[in-house]
Amino acid sequence: MTRVASSHSPDPAPEPADRLHRDADPGPGSDPAPEAAPDADPATAAFRELLTGPGRALLDRLAAGHRPEDEIALVTRLRRDHPAELVSAALAQAALRRRAAAKFAPEDAARMFFTADGVEQATRAEVARHRARRMAALGARRVADLCCGNGGDAVELARAGLRVLAVDRSPLACAAARANADALGVGDLVEVRQDDVTTTDLADCDALFVDPARRAGGSRRFDPEAYSPALSWSVAAARRLPVAALKTGPGIDHADLPADAETEWVSDGGAVKEAVLWFGTGLPGRYRATLLPAGDSFLTDATTEPPTGEAGRYLYEPDGAVIRARGVADVVAEVGGRLLDPAIAYVTADTLVATRRATAYELTDVLPFGLKRLKALLRERGIGSLTIKKRGFAMTPEELRAKLRLEPRRHRATATLFLTRSAAGPLMMLGHPAEQPTH
Ligand SMILES: C[S@@+](CC[C@H](N)C(=O)[O-])C[C@H]1O[C@@H](n2cnc3c(N)ncnc32)[C@H](O)[C@@H]1O
């Protein structure tokens, strides 16, 4: 196990390798290769160098950005005063910070440090913040953030007022997590430990958060037993502490959800980001959908099969988190509606009802699907721009769009097209977002 010391000393920083390896005991179960001697690799050594005074100064010079065509001249200038590896690392880091601004507040991203995988794997700050606040509200005080990566979750847990033990086996991830906690002003609340999470000591923690590695060979892992660590390990660890949150992919099979966990699907801006298995909420076996950024959270209630029937004047498209949390029947009940098909998450109703679980559309046309008929309808309505959505329909929006040959310059109207199936066969529905009535 290696404790990663704080790097926010105002003095010129010591050699970063010293800071990381101050407590060099590898500890039981720590992963020896290939990360045990990271500085053998010049790029890795350069990353560490970025955390030192000269490295940070170089990053500051790159903060304003530059035009691609100016890069060669810039590199030539910087190499006069700095080693080539450091210049390359600083340019790469500046690019990672720019990418990270899509997930983190830009003012945070501009001060943070990322490993190449780190930005890719990091939780969006909005999502991490929601989870952290929920954990604090459940009474946690010192949380083990297992598989902390670059520390994005650790920072939000600390900002929610928790003390954090952040653990990762990657020395570089730990160096980044340490630097990030310090850079964002929560260094005192975060202890970073380089270790294997499956053997690390959690003795003084009362809560657990695990965000396992879910990528291998570049492709997403769907089997939760193929996560690192495996979901079964995390569940066993979760059951030993008062509160725990285990992050999984949003597409996790419901059959893999432990009966004693509450599962929360979280979407941000309409895209489902994660499913979290919660222990210690007092709601075992329940499903919840949380919709960010608004923060609305819905426990799935309905237990009866919703009715089905023909399309009415309005179509409600439930948020993906609501769908994953099996809350479509709750939307049907809320809007007094019905499903078009028992297996498809399109809800229809004759009236417009305020709901935060779904987006409502007013339908102008509902017809059996037919390409010629659709082209004629779009021409008649002067529609040149179309948002195409589909559920339970074989053709992809791209395929259909190619066949439609829309002419947005000539036809100025816009519409949303829904392709789906009903008892009567394939269906196309044209409409536009409805003004939501006030709640
Ligand atoms: C998905 S990332 C974590 C991202 C992080 N929560 C964030 O928001 O930045 C998964 C991390 O798990 C770490 N990891 C996987 N298996 C591990 C193990 N057995 N022990 C320690 N770390 C492990 C990897 O090194 C990687 O940094």
Task: Label this structure with key terms.
439 residues; alpha/beta; Rossmann fold; binds S-adenosylmethionine; 3 domains
Written account of the structure:
- This protein has 3 domains: 2-116, no CATH class; 119-298, Vaccinia Virus protein VP39 (Rossmann fold, 3-Layer(aba) Sandwich); 314-433.
- It contains 15 helices and 19 strands.
- It has helices at residues 16-21, 42-50, 53-62, 71-81, 84-100, 106-109, 116-121, 125-137, 152-159, 171-183, 231-238, 320-324, 328-335, 371-381, 397-404, and strands at 2-4, 142-146, 163-168, 190-194, 207-210, 215-216, 219-220, 243-248, 262-268, 271-279, 287-292, 296-299, 314-318, 338-339, 347-349, 358-368, 383-390, 413-422, 425-433.
- The strands form 3 sheets. A 10-stranded mixed β-sheet has the order 1-4-3-2-5-8-10-9-11-12, sandwiched between helices. Strands 14-15-13-16-19-18-17 form a 7-stranded mixed β-sheet.
- The protein is globular.
- The termini are far apart.
- The model is unreliable at 7-36 (pLDDT under 50).
- Bound molecules: S-adenosylmethionine.
- The site of S-adenosylmethionine (SAM) has 21 residues, from helix 7 and helix 9.
- Keywords: Methyltransferase, Transferase.
- Residues 358-432 form the THUMP-like domain.
- This is Class I SAM-dependent methyltransferase.
- Residues 1-40 are annotated as: Disordered.
- The average pLDDT is 88
N-to-C CA distance: 54 Å
In the CATH classification, which architecture of the largest domain applies?
3-Layer(aba) Sandwich
Q: What best-fitting shape do the alpha-carbon axes yield? A: globular
> Roughly how much helix do the residues carry, as a percent range?
25-40%
CATH topology of the largest domain: Rossmann fold
Briefly, what CATH class of the largest domain? Answer: Alpha Beta
Look at the helices and sheets and give the structural class: alpha/beta
The largest sheet has its strands arranged as 1-4-3-2-5-8-10-9-11-12
Count helical runs.
15
Q: From the alpha-carbon coordinates, what is the Rg to the nearest angstrom? A: 26 Å
Number of separate structural domains = 3
CATH superfamily of the largest domain: Vaccinia Virus protein VP39
The biggest sheet, with number of strands, parallel, antiparallel or mixed sense and barrel status, is:
10 strands, mixed
Count of strand segments:
19
- Ligand set: S-adenosylmethionine
Portion in beta strands? 15-25%
Low-confidence stretches: 7-36
GO molecular function, one term: methyltransferase activity
Keywords: Methyltransferase, Transferase
Region (Disordered): 1-40
Biased composition (Basic and acidic residues): 16-25
